[in-house]
Design a protein that fits this description.
The chain has 167 residues and is mainly alpha-helical. It has one domain. It is globular, with a radius of gyration of 16 Å. The protein starts with a helix and ends in a 13-residue tail after the last helix. The model has no long low-confidence stretch (mean pLDDT 87).
Length: 167
Amino acid sequence: MQDVFVAKADELVDAGIRQSGIPLTDTLKHYLAITIARFMRDHPGIDRLTIRVTQAMETRAPPDILRRLGDECLIATSLFEGRLRRSGGSLRHYSGLGQVAYEAAAMTEQAHSFPHMRDVIVSGTARGRGRDNLRALLDAARAGSTVARRSLAEGKVIAFPARRWIG
């Protein structure tokens, strides 16, 4: 992997940690920087994620394949949220897929920290992007985003788990 990719990814992670206010362990910080650097070089496969994760789980895929799928879910939910939403999926669904893939790969810290890692990536890359869309904030909060929950709380909004209002 080229040093320039790792250096830029490390800067992005540092900026994301500062912007989000979410501290990461050194292990997660380095893992996240390496993952971002890898996808700067090799584009993530964000199509058919649900099918690919399900097939990997059914066939008891090796940990490296499950890790890669977890990484793809992380990158997809962080950088390609709009595309996932247009395909009919929710952020909570794809975040859950990533967590399941990491857990199956015996990467417990990454599985439990998925929402925090996502918040760091989004915060590190959000400059100039409209992230204040209420629907996107609600979806992110339901997927475990601390940053989205804080933003909603400032506006006195609570993200209940239900997708539809019962009236």
